[in-house]
Please model this.
Amino acid sequence: EIVLTQSPGTLSLSPGERATLSCRASQSVSNRYLAWYQHKPGQAPRVVIYGASSRAAGIPDRFSGSGSGTDFTLTISRLEPEDFAVYFCQQYSSSVWTFGQGTKVEIK
Amino acid sequence: QVQLQESGPGLVKPSGTLSLTCTVSGGSITTTNWWSWVRQSPGKGLEWIGDVYYTGTTNYSPSLKSRVTMSVDTSKNQFSLMLASVTAADTAFYYCARDSMDSYWYFDLWGRGTLVSVSS
Model:
């Protein structure tokens, strides 16, 4: 089973700042199977990036994904108030899905 | 549009069996998608439990495999989760989700989740 490790655990930033979130896999992951989700309390998680770098429908272009192999990054170029949330990365391999433990992006 | 809604008891006794159902509305469950269950324990990250195809074929998380059973009822457009021998560690928000497995694989639709507490 591939383990995903996200860092940092918490990012304390101000609106307008840039957020850079990391997701590292214990083994190589196909870009086709790497996604990022945004999760707010009381809401369903929603996909923001799929295929490592493709923005999901309705996701603003300040969100971008990059990386390959074992290192992936989610970048939010200029944080808006609605972006403060927990972000999870996810991968699929050998009929098993796994998630990272999450990065909380909080208002500084 | 397609929506998912979890339902089931919010309280289960220790050593009992947790049972949840996810109803698919606005579309059919008999598509090329798989259907997943995911949970989030208090203060922890998301944990995939398993998924099921409309034919009844399943995949389970290795860590939960011995206690999990998933099934589909195509006549009701529902899929279900049973988790046996529960303990307090199984207290969590439980979500159902749709696996999009086309050119890219990810969960493109989620339910709002339901809280299940394990307590006597």
Q: What stands out?
A: Chain A has a mean pLDDT of 96.
